[in-house]
Amino acid sequence: MKVKKIPYRLLSAFVAVCLLLSVSITSVLAQAAPPSITVSDASGSPGDQVDISVDAENISFTKGITVKFTFDASQFSCVESTVNPDLLGNGNLAKVDSSPEKDTVLFYFISSQGAAVGHLFTATFAIKDGAETTSITP
User: d(Cα 79, Cα 9) in Å, to the nearest integer?
Assistant: First the structure.
């Protein structure tokens, strides 16, 4: 049985194409969007209540997240905060801490096995009487 030899030029061209493809694939994977936390927009008038949604983006697997944001307590008060119930169970623990007297909302998520996350929590803010145009900063 005769073995057909591959010419060196053809082999060199094949190796060069494989190297180019591996560099291209690596650079495409490296350009994936980085993980981020987003806070929804809301607007209202003094006396109104507004909901702020806090979400994680581009996080397909994590064992823990902590989100802390502060706001001007002379303009707003956090009257309620609710964890996404889909984050609970299966070795996961999630909690959001806020109160009308504090100027901070603190959220944490811990997973013993790792989990995909999306929507984290919703916080309801009361806009105080006499409030001026201002913002809540994550």
Answer: 73
pLDDT, mean over the chain: 76
How many other C-beta atoms are found inside a 10 Å radius of the C-beta of residue 89?
Answer: 9
Tell me which of 30 and 62 has the higher pLDDT. Answer: 62
Return d(Cα 76, Cα 131) in angstroms, integer.
8
CA distance 67 to 122: 12
How far does CA 96 lie from the centroid of its chain? Answer: 15
- d(C-alpha 28, C-alpha 24), whole Å: 6
Tell me the β-bridge partners of 55: 38, 119
Q: Which helix (H) or strand (E) holds 85?
A: none
